[in-house]
């Protein structure tokens, strides 16, 4: 009888351990993906005869929790902007890195920095969203140049005003000559989760000044780690490709008679539909 009782107790113990292990395997959540410590993009090499230094890559690094907006999923705000610059040809160190680091109350809050030609001279500038702990986001353009002594230098060329409220963000998605005046404009959606307003801005001195605006469109949902849509140039007609405010329709936005106007391109099933629309198929 004692042997039988011992066997029963051992069997019950084994069963309990097995059930516990099985429950842990079923219930325990999978490890969360690591937070990116850097987001970056590479651009083209400088053409023959281009003025150096030339920005060939740019990155955001130094993740920080001092501005906990968390609108970009795992991508936190960053403190540093680094540009990899080509400074010479056929020399021992053809590239160097130039870094700008922000102190509070400012951070970089973006899915990625961009190498876009904002001035229209064929040379890329750096476009990135910067946020203030109490004023929200603004769009900034940075320029790679030289100091008086010839050392490569990274400076803020121009910016928009801050939106004006904490935890208000904007999503840049392209650059192009929308107004056909021979000068590029930057396109972004201001507050893509709330106000859903596309804005065009152009460079004037040290300011990015408004060119046009259109409500009811968006290109980002909270938690997404990239920005949807973009700008296309179809036979000389520059258009923005965006989602309608309810994410049900594909919308093309262009310039007509001095203002931004939209036209419907069809149903929006998934974000890849916006990418496909950039090919000028419709």
Automatic annotation (TrEMBL):
Q: Which residues form the SRCR domain?
A: 225-282
Q: Which InterPro entries match?
A: Integrin_alpha_N (IPR028994), SRCR (IPR001190)
The source's domain of life comes to Bacteria
* Name this polypeptide is given: FG-GAP repeat domain-containing protein
**Native source species:** Seohaeicola saemankumensis
């Amino acid at each position: 009888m004692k042997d039988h009782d011992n066997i029963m107790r051992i069997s019950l113990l084994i069963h309990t351990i097995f059930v516990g292990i099985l429950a842990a395997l079923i219930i325990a959540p999978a490890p969360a993906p690591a937070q990116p410590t850097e987001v970056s993009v590479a651009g083209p090499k400088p053409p023959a005869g281009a003025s150096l230094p030339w920005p060939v890559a740019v990155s955001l690094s130094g993740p920080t929790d001092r501005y906990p907006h968390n609108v970009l999923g795992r991508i936190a705000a960053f403190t540093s902007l680094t540009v990899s610059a080509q400074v010479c040809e056929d020399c021992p160190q053809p590239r160097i890195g130039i870094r700008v680091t922000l102190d509070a109350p400012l951070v970089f809050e973006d899915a990625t920095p961009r190498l876009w030609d904002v001035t229209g001279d064929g040379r890329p500038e750096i476009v990135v969203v910067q946020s203030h702990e109490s004023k929200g986001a603004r769009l900034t353009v940075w320029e790679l140049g030289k100091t008086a002594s010839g050392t490569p230098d990274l400076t803020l060329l121009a910016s928009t005003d801050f939106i004006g409220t904490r935890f208000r963000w904007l999503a840049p998605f392209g650059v192009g000559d929308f107004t056909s005046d021979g000068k590029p404009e930057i396109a972004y959606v201001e507050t893509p989760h709330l106000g859903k307003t596309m804005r065009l801005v152009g460079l004037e001195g040290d300011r990015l000044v408004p060119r046009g605006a259109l409500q009811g469109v968006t290109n980002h949902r909270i938690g997404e780690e990239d920005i949807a849509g973009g700008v296309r140039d179809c036979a000389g007609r520059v258009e923005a490709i965006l989602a309608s405010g309810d994410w049900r329709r594909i919308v093309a936005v262009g310039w007509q008679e001095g203002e931004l106007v939209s036209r419907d391109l069809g149903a929006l099933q998934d974000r890849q539909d916006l990418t496909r629309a950039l090919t000028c198929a419709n």
